[in-house]
Design brief:
The chain is mostly beta strands. It has three domains: 61 residues, SH3 type barrels (Roll); 61 residues, Nucleic acid-binding proteins (OB fold (Dihydrolipoamide Acetyltransferase, E2P)), CATH 2.40.50.140; 57 residues, Nucleic acid-binding proteins (OB fold (Dihydrolipoamide Acetyltransferase, E2P)). It has no helices and 16 strands. The strands form three sheets. A six-stranded antiparallel beta sheet has the order 1-6-2-3-4-5, with no helix packed on it. β2 and β3 form a beta hairpin. This is Elongation factor P. Keywords: Cytoplasm, Elongation factor, Protein biosynthesis. Its main location: cytoplasm. One of its GO terms (molecular function) is translation elongation factor activity.
C-alpha cells in the first residue's frame, strides 16, 4: 500500500475496480485546509481518462509493474503488434491503451509496463521524443515571418503536426511525444 505522497507520473494504481495509470499530478498545499493531490488518470483497460483528488495521506493500492523494451512491428486496424527485444515474444495491444500511436513508426523501441501479478501488459511508454520526416506541407512564403507562425505538416506516420513556416517536405523534425508538438529541425 502506498499513500498519496507516492503519486508520480507513470504510477499504476487500482481504483474503482480498474487499473489506472497516472498521467498528470499536482501536489497542492493551500494556505487554509489540508493538502491534497490532484490527478489525471487513464484507465489501462478502456483508455478513458479520469480526474480525481486524493487527500494528503490517503492510502492508494499501487500495482507492481515490470518494464520491458518492445519493438513496434505493425498495426492491423485497432490492434498494434510489438516484439520483446530480449526473448522475441510478440504481443498485441489495443490502440486505446497507447498514448500517441500516431507518432510510432515501424521499428520504434518503446517501454511496455507489465503487471507482475498476471503478466498482462498495462500501457506503452513512448520515448521522450521521436524524429520523423515531413512528407507533405505547404511551402513557406518568403517574408512571412510573423512571430511563432505555424503551418500544418504531415509526417511519415500520417500524424499532423504544427510546424514553423521554414519547415519543408523532406525535413526531419524532432517531436515531443508527451504533447505531440514540434521541438526542432534536425541537421543532416
Amino acid at each position: 500500500m502506498a499513500t498519496s505522497s507516492d503519486i508520480r507520473k507513470g504510477l499504476c494504481i487500482r481504483y474503482n475496480n480498474d487499473i489506472y495509470k497516472i498521467i498528470e499530478f499536482l501536489h497542492v498545499k493551500p494556505g487554509k485546509g489540508p493538502a491534497f493531490v490532484r490527478t489525471k488518470m487513464k484507465s489501462v483497460t478502456t483508455g478513458k481518462t479520469l480526474e480525481n483528488t486524493f487527500s494528503a495521506g490517503h492510502k492508494i493500492d499501487d500495482v507492481r509493474v515490470e518494464t520491458h523494451k518492445f519493438q513496434y512491428l505493425y498495426n492491423e486496424g485497432e490492434m498494434y503488434h510489438f516484439m520483446n527485444t530480449e526473448d522475441y515474444a510478440q504481443i498485441q495491444l489495443m490502440k486505446d491503451i497507447l498514448d500517441t500511436p500516431e507518432l510510432m513508426k515501424e521499428g520504434e523501441v518503446v517501454t511496455v509496463l507489465i503487471n507482475t501479478e498476471d503478466g498482462a501488459p498495462l500501457s506503452v511508454d513512448m520515448p521522450a521524443h521521436v524524429i520523423l520526416e515531413v512528407t507533405s506541407t505547404e511551402p513557406g512564403v518568403k517574408g512571412n515571418t510573423a512571430t511563432n507562425a505555424t503551418k500544418p505538416a504531415i509526417v511519415e506516420t500520417g500524424a499532423e503536426i504544427n510546424v514553423p513556416l521554414f519547415i519543408n517536405e523532406g525535413d526531419k523534425i524532432r517531436i515531443d511525444t508527451d504533447k505531440g508538438q514540434y521541438q526542432e529541425r534536425m541537421k543532416d
